[in-house]
Amino acid sequence: SLLFIETRDLLAPAQPQATPAVDWPRFAKAAWSQLAKLLHLPGQTAGGSTLATQLEKYRHSPDGLTLSGGEKIRQMISASVRTYQGGPQTLAARQNIVRDYLNSVPLSAVPGHGEVHGIAEGLRVWYGADFNQTNALLAGNDAKNLAQKGLALREVLSLMIAQRRPSHYLSKGRDELASLTDSHLRLLGQSGEIEPTLINAALASKVTYRDWQQQPTIQPIETNKGISVVRSRLAALLNRPLYDLDRLDLAATSTLQSELQTQATDYLKRLADPAFAAQLGLLGPRLLTPTSTAQVRYSFNLYEMTADGARVRVQTDSTDQPFDINEGSKLELGSTAKLRVLTTYLQMISELHERYAGQAPAALKKIEVNDQDRLTRWAVDYLIQHNDHSLANMLDAALDRQYSASPGEAFFTGGGLHRFHNFRNEDNGRNPTLRDALRESINLPFIRLMRDLVRYSTYQGPNNSAELLKDDSDPRRQEYLARFADREGTTFLLRFWKKYRNKDTQARLDTFLDSMHPTAMRLAAVHRYLLPQASQQSFNSFVRAHLPATKSAEKLTDARLDTLYINYGPGAYDLPDQGYIAKVHPLDLWLLGYLLNHPDATFSQAVAASEHERQEVYSWLFKSRHKSARDSRIRTMLEIEAFLDIHQRWQQVGYPFDHLVPSLATAIGSSGDRPAALAELVGTILNDGVRQPPLRIDSLHFAAATPYDTRVVNDPDRGKRVMPSAVATALRAALSQVVDAGTAKRVAGSFKLADGTPLTMGGKTGTGDNRIEAVGAGGRILSSKSINRTATFVFYIGDQHFGTLTAFVPGSSAQNFTFTSALPVQVLKGMAPILSPYLQPGAHTLCQAPASTSVEYTQAPQPGVSYLSHAFE
Predict the structure, then answer these.
(1) Strand 697-702 with 411-413, pairing
(2) Which end of the chain is more exposed for a tag (fewer CB within 10 A), N or C?
């Protein structure tokens, strides 16, 4: 049928060297039809493509289209080269062209299935016919099957005709396709290609199109969050969208433990039932009420540390939504940030140990340390006072350092004064060690510790920028002040941009004027800056229109307006003075003027255009009488620089975001985090300071049992040491106290070995009550709107398993909840009967690695096997 329609002598053995790329008569006819079309002559446009060039077109041309004559020539050359690769004899190549065309010809697309390629898929998708059965019918001679054979012929022939315009013929043009099929059947009969009885049977038959709702082409399988995450990761790994991923000849092996994944998902969903929640002890103060259980979402992940990486055994939540709290969120997870702060602290102590531990006491006494650098001062004093300079003992002593828990101090951070509070008022008078503060999650010691980390980064960093505060004549101060002006100006510019975006010019002007307290002088300053070329008449109308009627009648004579027009004209005042006169921020005034002249500008364009104005607005900083103001701005920039250093340290241990909020509040969670990233940090601590990439895919098997059979397995050598072993040991001990006697003590002893021995357990809790607050003078809160509420427990169990459990309430309804991290701790405790069989060490665990990854990777890579690299994220 195909050759009868397209090229009848394509497979003729009598022409062993014939080229399938060009049919010269057809090409000439097509060229003439294109010329006739160009000259507006009557006639039908003809195509010049052979099967060989059509293959090249839909496989390799942009979007499968021939958009120019040059592209058509390229298709013909490519088809010719491909044909003669095996030599001058082309019969085998021509046979391959026919086979490949039948197997891959585009046949439009179907809702719920996608693109349709090849006769086999076309029969199944469009007619619900089986390819093998169709072949058997067409090859058979049983007279009893003549009607079925005729229908099979019609179905195949109709698809061959439809390939010319598949989206038309297989959709709205079905009657037209049926008529064309009848015509071709008669031609086949007249040519003697097919016996008359079969032609008559085919003409008498009628195709039935598949009902995709009643008979879907793809049967959906039950999936879960873990599988969805694996699919997304695989799509990113292969740089293919999910649509294309579903069409690859590929089998992927996941690290997920299927049975445990299912049990954990069912468990989390059952927590919405008040009776089940009560049975688990989830109701009560700082937990839930019977009416609130259904509103809380839970997310859980569990990893197993193995030689080649941290295998994800469970990743699930209680929703069926595609959003993944574990990996797709940025949430304030409260006091879990204290674990990151403590990790950075111990790493800094380790650096000081490496720098100074080898020096004699006499040399240590000569080291100059800035009064603000408390960490270096403590480290030097410790090494002077103790003969044992081992890192383990020094880290132990560092955890026993005491910090005040008093909330009475105001901290200059983030460009202003801030006060912080403890969760429990009874902690306010304490002076706990850092070990105790972590165990009981006391805020103020960690605020003060973070301040020490910032100062360490400032004073121990390159060039010691803090020296700028001593010498007002240091030329570097000018550079820092310029950077402050640029940063501060950009921040204000963004605030004003949000006010004006998505508004037309008049609406922007109205918005600006609504924020003013208008007087004639202020309106004059605004108008003459925004519209410097406007006439006196236009100026008068503007001022009178926007000034309250009482003031207008009393003072706005024509003479007064003439004076204002002249006094506030272009050049009379600079931008800062114009803003001062109008009592608006100068950058607000500048941005409005910029948008009047560039209404379609982007924010990045506004930032680029305001480089000079941002410096001009803060020119007062550079004047001699403002040294204290300059110092406070320089402190702000030094703090920002210190947080850049701290951010780099956090990223090395898996922090997922591109920046930290440069504020001491980062110590209690204001910079945000992700549960999966916290789990990765705990996994590094559990793995003795070596960071292993999380593994969700064990192996990939492409095109099994074909000439392209390829298997890809994990590269086992991906671990990277990111902290000294002694630091990891000290952190494990500190985390274990949180479970043994701290905020997570309710889960202590819940997970046991088969013989009843409790598994060692540690972790960190955190609660995030995330709100938008409007603050008035003196720090008074004018309004507070809840965004969400979170409670997280990041943990390790035994020597190999770790993970997180998060409770999450999104939106304004979160203001009705008061649960703390006691909730996820209690939820995890209730999972003990489910998890315990999978946590047993050695051969007793049910978290066995799949057989495909149990190979010893001690030899060179083998042919046909590639290695899958997992980059740290």
Answers:
(1) unpaired
(2) C
Q: Which residue has the tokens 């022939």?
A: 157
- The pLDDT value recorded for residue 790 is 94
What does the pLDDT average to over 332-340? 95
242 has a pLDDT exceeding 90: no
Do 834 and 746 touch, CB atoms closer than 8 A? Answer: no
Query: 280 CB contacts (<8 Å, ≥6 apart)?
Result: 271, 826, 827, 829, 830
Return residue ranges of the chain for CATH 1.10.3810.10: 2-204
pLDDT digits (tens, 9 = 90+) for 3-13: 777 676 777 78
Closest residue by Cα to residue 697 from 220, 224, 236: 236
Long-range contact set of residues 13-16: C-beta below 8 Å, sequence gap at least 24: 13/91, 16/89, 16/90, 16/91
Locate 791 and state its tokens: 């409670």
Task: Give CA–CA dist 782/798, Å, rounded.
Answer: 48
CB atoms within 10 A of CB 407: 16
Find tokens 């199109």 and name the residue: 209
Distance CA 232, CA 58 (A): 27
Question: pLDDT per residue over 573-631, tens digit each?
Answer: 988 888 888 888 888 899 999 999 999 999 999 999 998 888 887 776 566 566 666 66
DSSP track, 600-629: T--HHHHHHHTHHHHHHHTGGGGSGGGHHH
**Residue 775 Ramachandran class (φ > 0 left, ψ -120 to 50 alpha, else beta):** beta
The arithmetic mean of pLDDT across residues 116-145, rounded, is: 91
Distances (CA, A) of 496 to 501, 505, 591, 604, 607: 9, 14, 8, 13, 12
Query: What CATH number should be reported for the domain whose range is 2-204?
Result: 1.10.3810.10
CA 872, CA 651: separation in Å to the nearest integer? 10
Q: What is the predicted pLDDT for the residue at 382? A: 98
Share of the chain above pLDDT 90, in %: 50
* Amino acid at site 492: F
Which of the pair, 385 or 460, is modelled with greater confidence? 385
Q: Tens digits of per-residue pLDDT, 286-333?
A: 999 999 999 999 999 999 999 888 999 999 989 877 667 777 778 889
Q: Is the predicted pLDDT of residue 854 greater than 50, yes or no? A: no
Q: Which long-range contacts (CB under 8 A, 24 or more apart) does 494-498 make?
A: 494/603, 496/585, 496/587, 496/588, 496/591, 496/592, 497/591, 497/603, 497/606
Average pLDDT over residues 153-164: 91
Buried/exposed 693-721: b ≥16 CB within 10 Å, e otherwise: bbbbbbbbbbeeeeeeeeebbbbbebbee
For the sheet with 297-306, list strands across it. Answer: 694-695, 309-317, 297-306, 801-810, 781-797, 761-775
Name, in order, each residue with C-beta under 8 angstroms of 166's C-beta and a sequence gap of 6 or more. 106, 107, 108, 116
CA angle 830, 836, 840 (to 5 degrees): 160
Model confidence at 796: pLDDT above 50 = yes
Strands (DSSP E) contained in 703-850 are: 710-714, 720-721, 761-775, 781-797, 801-810
Q: Count of residues for the chain?
A: 873
- Provide the total of helices (H) and of strands (E) in the chain, helices listed first: 37, 16
- Mean pLDDT of the chain, nearest integer: 85
Residue 180 corresponds to which tokens in the numbers above?
């064309």
Cross-strand pairs, 402:
433
Gyration radius from the chain CA atoms: 37
Q: What are phi and psi of 413, to 5 degrees?
A: -155, 150
Alpha helices in 240-313 (DSSP H): 242-245, 258-270, 274-279
Instruction: Indicate whether 426 pLDDT > 90.
Output: yes
Regarding predicted confidence, which is higher, 399 or 581?
Answer: 399
Q: Return the bridge partners of 809, or none.
A: 789
The pairing of strands 309-317 and 694-695 is parallel
Looking at residue 848, its pLDDT comes to 60
Among 700, 656, 709, which residue's Cα sits nearest to residue 678? 656
